[in-house]
TrEMBL record:
Lineage, broadest ranks: Bacteria, Pseudomonadati, Pseudomonadota, Acidithiobacillia, Acidithiobacillales
Protein name: Antitoxin
Ranges where the record places region Disordered: 1-29
Summary of the function given for this chain in its UniProt record: Antitoxin component of a type II toxin-antitoxin (TA) system.
One Pfam family per UniProt: PhdYeFM_antitox
Family assignment from sequence similarity: Belongs to the phD/YefM antitoxin family.
InterPro entries, sorted: Antitoxin_Phd/YefM, YefM-like_sf
Polar residues: compositionally biased ranges: 1-15
Length: 84
């Protein structure tokens, strides 16, 4: 991963180059020498903000009925309790 730093002025003048650089890592954009913004690829953004879903949320997703899912049956057996 390559980190690129550009001033706001450089970013305005070289936006295409900044977008290409974002494919290789984050691009920090500075205002008066201080980091102010970060440009990254959409894929990196999705990976960074991915939220874990619980099973109820996943089952409520549109189009879920089209997915075949056959979980294996589980046999749960009881055992006598040993109080000794």
């Amino acid at each position: 991963m390559t980190i690129t730093t550009l001033s706001s002025r450089e970013f305005n003048q070289r936006a295409s180059e900044a977008k290409r650089s974002a494919n290789n890592g984050p691009v920090f954009i500075t205002d008066r020498g201080r980091p102010a913004h970060v440009l990254m690829s959409f894929e990196d953004y999705q990976r960074l903000t991915r939220q874990r879903r619980n099973i109820a949320d996943a089952l409520a997703m549109p189009g879920i009925a089209d997915i075949e899912f056959e979980p294996p049956r589980v046999a749960i057996e009881t055992r006598p309790t040993d109080f000794s």
